[in-house]
């Protein structure tokens, strides 16, 4: 008799499910079941009361994890000074230039030194304008409803980016010290001028698509870029083509005073570093096959430059490359999902910083692969990887990055992450080829797997 009743209940439940699948809405019976499952314990009421008047992040802060993490690191790259990107999405540019300045400071035993982010950002925006306009010309045979065309008009310009932007821009336009083309209000607050540029680009895009003569768009594009250059010059200033600069040692004493072009400046101080050929971006993306090379269509800053190409590796192999670089006093471009479990007051990234499960009464069990596949996690911010703390067996315990949120943010302008957090939320690092084993470098000989430009994993780092 018990089996019959159980079977009948199973059939009734199945019938209700099937009916629900046909309908799709919340029925009265479902609502009754949902409501009846709720409890009104003291703990439930306390949680509701607290959540009504407090931020979730404050309430979920783990009291058992409030003590400051140990700030000793067994291996640390020599760096000086902290930069500030202010209200802009230029973390990728700050990170790339911070890697270069760390090397110059170390090689020449200098005091603090920064390069002009405003200078390269001017050309970044101009090159991205050209990238959009030329992409519109290339796709003008496709209907506006085509997904690639739609993506282009949705994303004509942004101030975020990747390491390929740093490498292509530096090798094409060189670098200048920050005092030669300093920051201004617009470079520190990019949203308003960016919106105006995007509006103009969309207008131009429609005009280019309307051209019938195949030769006409080239001349028209030049006129458009001339006007866009003028807008950029008003906002950010005119980039120098030649400048005089004095090199001083860390005591402030003059070493030399010379006249440079941005390209000759780079050649003199970084002439042996080819950012386009000497470096490899490695990724840890468990949602895609390891030991494969991937390329993202239109994910570049310069039309005649390089798409973003990366090698996907298991996390332990990424760590080994990063450790080798740090041990050799070489900083790296690094990016991660910085907003996850960040305790800003301490400047720590630790999965134990917040206890959301106890506060909300539910579990959050997804692993890294599942979070990537469901768009719950992805790289959002680039910083400069400068330190690792290894135990007696050579196993990493924690890592540190130099950030670009100013000296007051985090721990002395840096963020410290536990190794467990590193595994879960680190995504990519750019490594000099000399630290990569020969068998790993051979993997780069394979033809990259092309991914679409709208792949959500590859949104610009801000």
Q: In which range does the helix fraction lie? A: 40-55%
What is the CATH superfamily label? Cysteine proteinases
Largest sheet: 12 strands, mixed
Instruction: Give the strand tally.
Output: 14
Q: Quickly name the level 1 CATH class.
A: Alpha Beta
Structural class: alpha+beta
Distance between the termini: 65 Å
* Contiguous runs where pLDDT drops below 50 for at least 5 residues: 1-19
Q: What's the number of helices? A: 17
What is the number of independent domains? 1
User: What is the chains' assembly state?
Assistant: single chain
Average predicted confidence as pLDDT: 93
**What is the name of the CATH topology?**
Cathepsin B, Chain A
The CATH architecture designation is Alpha-Beta Complex
The rough form would be described as: globular
Q: What is the percentage of strand-forming residues? A: 15-25%
The Rg value, from CA coordinates, equals 26 Å
Q: What does this 3D model show about the protein?
A:
This protein is of the alpha+beta class and 462 residues long. The chain has one domain: Cysteine proteinases (Cathepsin B, Chain A, Alpha-Beta Complex). The chain is 42% helix and 15% strand. The protein has 17 helices and 14 strands. It has helices at 2-23, 28-36, 42-53, 56-60, 91-108, 117-138, 147-154, 163-173, 185-188, 191-210, 216-236, 262-270, 315-327, 356-360, 368-373, 419-425, 438-441, and strands at residues 75-76, 243-248, 254-260, 279-283, 293-296, 308-312, 332-336, 342-343, 348-349, 381-390, 396-402, 414-418, 426-432, 449-451. The strands form two sheets. Strands 1, 4, 5, 6, 7, 8, 9, 10, 11, 12, 13 and 14 form a twelve-stranded mixed sheet that branches. Strands 2-3 form a two-stranded antiparallel ribbon. A hairpin with a 5-residue loop joins β2 and β3 (254-260). α6 (117-138) runs antiparallel to α11. The longest helix has 22 residues, at 2-23. The radius of gyration is 26 Å and the shape is globular. The model is unreliable at 1-19 (pLDDT under 50).
């Amino acid at each position: 008799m018990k089996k019959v009743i159980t079977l009948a209940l199973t059939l009734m439940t199945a019938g209700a499910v099937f009916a629900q699948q046909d309908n799709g809405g919340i029925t009265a019976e479902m609502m009754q079941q949902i409501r009846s499952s709720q409890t009104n314990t003291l703990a439930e009421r306390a949680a509701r009361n607290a959540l009504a008047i407090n931020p979730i992040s404050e309430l979920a802060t783990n009291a058992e994890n409030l003590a400051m993490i140990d700030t000793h690191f067994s291996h640390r790259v020599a760096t000086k000074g902290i930069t500030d990107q202010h209200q802009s999405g230029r973390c990728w540019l700050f990170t790339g230039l911070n890697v270069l300045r760390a090397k110059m400071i170390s090689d020449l035993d200098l005091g603090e030194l920064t390069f002009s982010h405003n200078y390269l950002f001017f050309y970044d925006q101009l090159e991205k304008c050209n990238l959009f306009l030329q992409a519109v010309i290339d796709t003008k045979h496709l209907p506006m409803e085509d997904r690639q065309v739609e993506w282009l008009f949705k994303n004509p310009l942004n101030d975020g980016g990747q390491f390929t932007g740093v490498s292509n821009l530096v090798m094409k336009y060189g670098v200048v010290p920050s005092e030669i083309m300093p920051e201004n209000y617009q470079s520190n607050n990019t949203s308003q001028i960016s919106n105006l540029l995007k509006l103009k680009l969309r207008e131009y895009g429609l005009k280019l698509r309307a051209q019938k003569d195949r030769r006409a768009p080239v001349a028209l594009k030049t006129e458009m870029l001339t006007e866009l250059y003028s807008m950029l010059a008003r906002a950010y200033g005119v980039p120098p083509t030649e400048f005089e600069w004095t090199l001083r040692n860390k005591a402030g004493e003059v070493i030399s005073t010379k006249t440079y072009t941005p390209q000759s400046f780079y050649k003199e101080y970084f002439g042996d570093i080819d950012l386009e050929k000497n470096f490899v971006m490695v990724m840890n993306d468990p949602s895609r096959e390891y030991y494969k090379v991937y390329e993202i269509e239109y994910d570049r800053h310069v039309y005649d430059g390089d798409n973003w190409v990366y090698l996907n590796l298991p996390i332990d192999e990424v760590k080994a490359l990063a450790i080798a670089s740090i041990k050799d006093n070489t900083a790296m471009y690094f990016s991660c999902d910085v907003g996850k479990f960040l305790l800003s007051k301490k400047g720590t990234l630790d999965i134990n910083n917040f206890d959301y499960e106890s506060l909300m009464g539910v579990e959050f069990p997804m692993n890294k692969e599942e979070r990537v596949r469901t768009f719950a996690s992805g790289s959002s911010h680039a910083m400069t990887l400068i330190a690792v703390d290894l135990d007696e067996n050579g196993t990493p315990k924690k890592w540190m990055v130099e950030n670009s949120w100013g000296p007051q943010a985090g721990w002395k302008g840096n963020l410290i992450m536990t190794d467990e957090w590193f595994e879960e939320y680190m995504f990519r690092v750019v490594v000099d080829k000399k630290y990569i084993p020969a068998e790993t470098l051979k993997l780069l000989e394979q033809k990259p797997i092309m991914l679409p430009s709208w792949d959500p994993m590859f949104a610009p780092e801000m």
